Amino acid sequence: MPPALLTTSLVNTLQIGSLYALMALGITLTFSVMKLPNFAHAEFVSAGAYAALIISLAGVLNPLLIMAAAFVIGALAALLSHLLVFKPLEQRQVSFYTLILASFAIGLILRYLLFLLADSFNLFDLRIAIPLRILFRQDSLILSNLFAWAVPTSLLLVFLLTLLLNRSPLGREMRALANNPSLARVIGIPVERVKNATWLIVGGLAGVAGALWGMQTAVNPLMGWAAIISVFAAAILGGLSSFSGTILGAYVVAFSENTIMLFLNYSFSLDLAYKPAIPFIIIIAVLLIRPQGFSALLRRGGDLKR
Amino acid sequence: MITVQNLTAGYGKLEILQDLSLSFAHGQFSAVLGPNGSGKSTLMKAIMGLNTVFGGAIALNGRELIGSATEAISALGIAYVPQRENIFDELTVRENLQLGMRRRPREQRASALQETLEIFPILGRRGSQRAGLLSGGEHQMLAIAIAWLGAPTLMLLDEPSAGLAPAVATDVFRSLQDLRGRGITLIVVEQNARRILRYCDYAFVLREGRLAFEGSAEACLQDEETIKGYLGVH
Amino acid sequence: MFRKMLLLGLVLTLAAALVMPALAQDDMETYMLGVALPFTGSFGTFGQDFERGIDLAVAQMNAELAAAGSAIRFETVSADTEQTPEGASRAVQTIVQTTGAQVIVGPLTTAEVLGAKQFVDENGIVIVAMASSGPAASIPGDNIFRVIYPPDTFSSKAFATIALERGHANMVLLHVDDAFGNGMKEQFITNYQAQGGGEVATFAYAPQSTELSTEAAAVSAALAGFGDSAGFFCVCFPGAAEAFVQVAQIDPILTSVQWLGNEAMTSDEMLEDPGHAMTLANADFVTVSQSADTTPLTPIFEHDFVAMFDKDPGIFTNYAFDAANIAMLTMLAAGNDGAAVKSMLPFIANHYIGTAVQAFLDENGDQAIASYGIRQVLEDGSGFEVIGTYDGNNDTITYK
After folding, report:
1. Which of B7, C191, C219, C252 has the fewest CB neighbours in a 10 Å radius?
2. Which of residues 74-133 of A touch B (CB under 8 A)?
3. Same domain assignment for residues C342 and C378
4. C2 lies in a domain?
5. Cα(B87)–Cα(B145) distance, rounded to whole angstroms?
6. What is the per-residue pLDDT across B89-139, written as a single tens digit (0 to 9) for each?
7. C256 reaches A (C-beta below 8 A)
């Protein structure tokens, strides 16, 4: 593999892996705290991307403001999904499978609402209009301004989330709820408030990921859905419970899709069109060989593993 | 203080407690004894609103509990320590204790924590350890401490000595006795009758969902028939 | 009392509204025209614009039929193909099973057309596609007609010729991994090498991809391997095209070579982004696509479309208009019956003037008149200009 290709692929791994991490953490958090593999997460990402796109079309080009708008809309989408669908269903004590199906349904509804929006205002495949510039160049190592936004933002948010979970009363209560929901109720943790807060954080992070993803590619109602399998692969690598495992998983998935894929293409002429199969292979391999993912390897106080 | 009248309760359609009536006195350490399946745990869960009540009444200081949600019942000052999953095993011991104080006003928390660590000194030494790594006895003490920190007036414990070595079980009962001395009412479900009877004040013996005996711990210990017939020899 | 009267009035009005059309249409005959197009997915904007073209054709036809006192009216029923072969099959089945339509206009891509093929062949339904061009669907005797846009066997020759004219000794090709992309790849390699071209490195991307940084890295490395004389050819879908340009615009190799590409790269969205527009301008981007010819129908179509929808027709929308007209004219001649339409459609198509080019079908039911426009991006990236035409039947490029 030529060194230039390796360098580029590693930069891509870092950039895309950071975005996967931001999305996958939300999946892990909802699964741990709410016991729900939420497929509608994909649409929280898309909703955030559209919020970012619309505010950028309105002339706001400060990436921080764009991401803030995406956070708010993603958070609202998540909270409303909880209040209008998941919470009433949980009160009826429906099965785990019903909740998964409900999350698919919410995802579909949100996706087609976004289609309606995109259709009405012709917002297909537009990009959030932050011009791409080269910030740093040394031989084949090229870092763009998007790289400079995506990677530190993701890492910072991941860091803040870890801090929130491990150092704040709310985080402690979230972990308590994840760990032992019935005891959490008994000792008087305001379970509904903690859940609402969790949904706001989960949706907000997904929204920010959507904004950054929309700067990286084009915004369309399917973008979140297109990324969700890779994101789930990352979360499953993290055992759906470990934070550090999920982050590591996100970079492993991005590394497989970029560097390993390019290596296989270069050395063995494996078609790049197989790229979408990589997350599926990872998911199946993890579930067969090591269903707990990385979580047991990286066990720490901050993790949510039961 | 807590009275149970003509209670029939169980799980789903299964009736386990049959028309049971008894009452627990304020400030006492009561044991509920009986063989497996006699309905001891069912009684606790019925008080906490965790199973199906078919008929009867449960009142705390005259206030009806049946029909209230578990959270509302625990908010009335009743703490429940189930037999299993009674701590947050993924969190540290200190975090467990902090979570236990959720119901206390902020200004009381420091002193409450200090008092707890006086009763359970071992928990102070294990503060930053993951709770899941505690030994069996430490685990039960943490569970009791979490419940105690919620400032309850009444604590229900479901077999706190289950699976513990005799010496460790004794430690647990001693600390319960200590808590009673601090003005709390205790109701403890136990299999191991002889040991707890040395620490508690009063005992109820259930058999097949009905009350078979009640009396002071001493009276119970001396009642050979009850001990042999209902509780087995330990 | 007043309330009761009001209620009664409402009920009567409602009843009348329900009954009147039934009375009015009593001796009318309705021909259902199915429309199967991708309304969602990255081709969604194309699908919606195509449907407008079809609606215009149907509205005009119905007005003429009414004026002539005919009892026949056309009605459309549409379904979303979701831009996948399975979705196209579902859409066509839904239309046929719920309305009994015998003729379907659409779908868009070759993969969708092939997805619906088995069902239409087995059930005697006729498909009239407007923009599908993959050679994989060039099959004699089946129920699929591709009436205006010719198969890529022609355009691939033009792309190969232009690549050689530009002095590209080798080519790197990125293509969507479906019937259209794979067909174009094979045809291009054959034609390019037959005319003396060198090696062609190809990379396929999965049809649903929205993020193409891996692909861009691979293309860039392959171009670097070939050296200065290489060119790049992109056969992409919309969405993927934008995603590719997005990552390509900071790649030092991709921004220093010349590009060829299909019409997905010519969308308005692409040029709205200044970075994308400049990338295409620097790459001297050229595409061979929709015919640039005109017929007497061309200005009429454009005028009527703007009058009805208050917007300009998008690329290939006039082809959808033509396809709908050929379908309706055939149904008027042969009746509302799939077998009769299949038998008569080539005859009618071959006598249809078209909004850009006349239809003339070959033995596969595909357009045999290969008329293309060659468009290049303007130097400032503000739009595209027609720089020539390609006559596929005589394999000649004429520059303006």
Report:
1. C252
2. none
3. no
4. no
5. 10
6. 989 999 999 999 988 888 989 999 999 999 999 899 988 999 999 999 999
7. no
Peptide bond into A221 cis (omega under 30): no
CA angle A293, A295, A296 (to 5 degrees): 105
Please give the ipTM for the structure prediction: 0.84
Q: What single-letter DSSP state applies at residue A21? A: H
| B175 contacts chain A (CB < 8 A) | no
Q: What is the DSSP string of C338-349?
A: HHHHHHHHHHHH
Q: Which residue, among C296, C265, C301, has the nearest Cα to C377 in the 3D structure?
A: C265
> What is the extent of the structural domain holding C227?
152-289+372-399
Whether the CB of B103 is below 8 Å from some CB of chain A: the reply is: yes
Q: Do chains C and B touch (3 or more CB pairs under 8 A)?
A: no
Pairwise CB contact (< 8 Å): A188 & B79: no
Shortest alpha-carbon distance between residue C400 and chain A (Å)? 33
Q: Which residue of A has its CA nearest to C252?
A: A140
Residue C77, min C-alpha distance to chain A (Å): 19
Q: Do B88 and A180 touch (CB under 8 A)?
A: yes
Residue B171's identity, in one-letter code, is D
pLDDT tens for A72-126 read: 999 999 999 999 999 999 888 888 899 999 999 999 999 999 988 988 887 887 8
How many angstroms separate the CA atoms of C334 and C213, rounded? 52
The CATH number of the domain holding residue C110 is: 3.40.50.2300
Contacts A265 to C, Cβ<8 Å: 203, 218
Helix or strand holding residue C188 (H, E): helix C179-194
- How many beta-carbon pairs below 8 A join chains A and B? 68
Can you tell me which residue has the tokens 């739009």? C383
Taking the C-alpha atoms of residue B43 and residue B62, their distance in angstroms, rounded to an integer, is 18
